[in-house]
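Figure-free illustration: sequence to structure, shown twice.
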Amino acid sequence: MAVLKIRTNPDPVLRKKARKVNSIDVSVNRLIDNMIETMQESSGIGLAANQVGAPLRIVVIQESDDEVLVLINPEIVETVGERTVIEGCLSVPGYQAEICRAETVRVRAKGRHGRLIRRKASDLLAQAIQHEVDHLNGVLFIDYLADKSQLFKTGSRPD
C-alpha cells in the first residue's frame, strides 16, 4: 500500500465529475487500499478517489477505529431534514465553515467486492457521505458559501 498525494483546491481534478466504475478489479482494489491508507495517515474521516487524482466514483469513510465503509458508484437516494454543521476538507487544508447538510441520508452503492449496499446514515456518517459524494460530482464544501469570508481557520470558531 502507499500514501497518495492529496490534491488541493484549485487542482482541476477536484472540479471534474468522476467516472463510474464498470469493473471492480485488482487495480480498483489497490486504489481502495491506498485511499484508506492515505485517509488514515492524513487523519481524515473520508476520501474520494478524485482527491488523489483518480477520477473514479469511489469513496472511503472511516466509520470506527477498525471499520472503513467503501462505496463504489454511490448514489444518495433520499435525504431527510437539515442541520448546520462545521465542515472541513483535506483538499481545502486549514479551513472550515458552517454549512447546511441533511440530517439523514439513504445511499445505494456497491461494496469493494461488488455486492449492493443500501445504507441509512445520520449525523457524522450522513455528513461524510454527502461531502464525499459531492467530491465525486466536482463540488467542494466551499461552494455552499455565499463568499469566502465565511471560512475560518481550523480550530477557531466563527464569531
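We now fold a second protein in the same way, so the two outputs can be compared directly.
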Amino acid sequence: MWWMMAVLAALIGADQALKYWTVAHLDLGQSAPLLPGVVQLTRLHNYGAAWSSLSGRTAVLLVVTTALMAAVAWLLVRRVVRHPLGVWACLLVLGGGLGNYIDRLWHGYVVDMFDLQFMTYPIFNLADCFVVVGVMLGAVYYLWFYEKYDRVTKHDADSHH
C-alpha cells in the first residue's frame, strides 16, 4: 500500500508544481510557448468543472469530488480492484481528482494551463490529464480484465467463510 501512497503523492505533487509555476510566471490570460504549433501554456482560472460546467458552484463540486474520490479510494483499500491496470487507473483518477480538489478548496477555482494550438479545445491542466487517462484505463480494465482477474464469484465468497 505504501507504493500507492508514493505514486499518489507524486501525481499530486507534479500537478501542484506545474500549477505553482504557471501562477508564478504567467499573469491571468498570459501565454507562453511550450511546443510551438501544438500547445502553449495559458494561465486560466476555471471556477467550474470540465468545460466550465457548474461554474461558481464550488461547494457542489467539492461535495461531488469528495464522494467520487472516496468511492475510488474504497475500491483500492477494500481490494475490489487488484489487477495492476485497474490499480493504476484508480491512482490516476485519485491523483487528478485530488489535485483539482486542492485548488478548489484553497482558491475557489482550478488553475488551467494547457492550451492546444492545433484545434479548438478548452484549456486544461495536468490533473485533468490524469483523470482522463485514468478513466480510459479504467474502462479498458473493466471491459477486458475485471471479469478474469478481480470479479468475486459466489464460489470465491463461499470459500472465504
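Summary for the second example: The chain has a mean pLDDT of 90.
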